[in-house]
Specification:
heterodimer, A: mainly alpha, elongated, B: mainly alpha, two-stranded antiparallel sheet
């Protein structure tokens, strides 16, 4: 009786371990926090640090973007929360936006962050209800960041100097 | 072999080898799956382990066992294959001339081992030496050559060496822990292989007779139950 139990338990354990390894190789976590957060999110037990998120939001509204990203990273170490990733992407957009040009490096990072946000959002749809923002959906932000990275004839249009930051 | 060892210990050891041999620590940690070439090498390596008697698949999976026991045995074989592929990926240099040389030597050694037909002990010794040499080459010699030089003279010499060899020897700089992880993975793999259920002398003799042309293997039941009985004796 004892041996079949050992064998069955071993089979379940090994199958679980193999599935975990497959998942790790598939998602490629960069840090231990990402790996642990990914597991927690899979079990529905992942939550952002609300205090750190509030700090990040305050910094973001004061245009302290680097500080905001630090706080957002603390709030969502596993990068599994769509809303936090959206704000990180938005901070890259606002910091990289200049009247005369766009900072490609920051826009690239913003694009990566908004893609992460879309990836973890349920059904890939993310709408943030924040009156301080002019772009409320991840789709709008993604297009805006991608437009800033691309080069086109419209970049030479002098009327672009009259555009405002969203 | 106990049920615990077969169902839990061996597959876990080999799966752990898959994990730690695939980790590339650094500023951004990454997990590298086995390369396609290493899958081919692992197939050959598994064939060699079976042929030498280092692992007896007939003791892990056969019709006389229960379904659960066969599934456990199958999980050991699959984990062994994955670990073999991952350990080869971890020990072979990633690029350039060293990769070409090591792949060539590794292939030649495998062919030589098939031609010689060594027994379990000799195969295990051979694996220890081959993996040890590959580890030393990749994580000691090539790592020392490829790590960022300190000081202007050392940097100049490194640039000169890189120029003379047309950059074909230099490898990706390795993280501090990468060599230690590879060493641990290699040791775990070899220990795991040493504890695999091996073929008894009778099993190897019977299997060899079955493989001989003209020999009908009259004393052997084709479903392998005779082989299993021999091993139990």
């Amino acid at each position: 009786m004892r041996e079949p139990l050992t064998r069955a338990a071993g089979l379940v354990l090994v199958a679980g371990y193999a599935a975990f390894l497959g998942w790790l190789f598939a998602i490629q976590p960069k840090t231990m926090a990402e790996a642990v957060g990914g597991v927690a999110a899979g079990l529905g037990a992942y939550a952002v640090d609300s205090q750190a998120f509030s700090d990040g939001l305050s910094y973001f509204r004061n245009d302290q973007f680097a500080e905001a990203r630090t706080a957002f990273a603390r709030a969502d170490p596993a990068r599994r929360d769509a809303r936090t990733q959206f704000y990180i992407a938005y901070s890259f957009y606002r910091e990289g936006w200049h009247r005369t040009h766009r900072d490609d490096g920051l826009y690239q990072q913003g694009l990566a962050a908004v893609e992460r946000a879309i990836e973890v959002a349920p059904g890939g749809r993310l709408v943030v209800d924040d009156a301080n923002l002019q772009m409320h959906s991840a789709d709008e932000l993604k297009v805006e960041l991608a437009r800033g990275l691309g080069a086109s004839v419209s970049d030479l249009n002098p009327l672009r100097l009259l555009e405002s930051r969203k | 072999m106990s049920a615990l060892a077969e169902a839990v210990v061996l597959p876990t050891v080999f799966l752990t080898v898959v994990l730690i041999a695939g980790v590339r620590p650094g500023a951004a940690v990454s997990l590298v799956p086995p390369s396609l070439a290493s899958l081919v090498a692992a197939t050959a390596l598994l064939g060699l382990l079976v042929r030498s008697g280092a692992v007896a698949p007939g003791r892990l999976v056969n019709p006389a066992r229960t379904l659960l026991a066969n599934l456990n045995g199958f999980s050991v074989l699959v984990a062994l294959f994955a670990a073999s592929a991952q350990i080869v990926t971890a020990l072979v240099p990633e690029s350039g001339l060293p990769a070409a040389i090591v792949w060539t030597v590794f292939g030649a050694l495998l062919l030589q081992a098939f031609a010689i037909g060594p027994d379990r002990t000799r195969v295990l010794r051979g694996l220890l030496v081959t993996f040890g040499a590959a580890f030393t080459l990749k994580f000691v010699v090539l790592s020392a050559i490829s790590s960022p030089a300190e000081g202007r003279i050392a940097r100049a010499l490194q640039l000169l060496f890189e120029g003379v060899t047309l950059g074909t020897v230099m490898q990706r700089p390795q993280g501090l822990a990468e060599g230690y992880l590879a060493f641990a993975a290699t040791a775990m793999y070899l220990i795991g292989v040493a504890f695999l259920p091996s073929a008894s002398w009778e099993m190897i003799r019977v299997l060899t007779r079955m493989a001989l042309p003209g020999d009908r293997g009259d004393d052997v039941n084709t479903n392998g139950s005779d082989v299993l009985d021999s091993s139990r004796r």
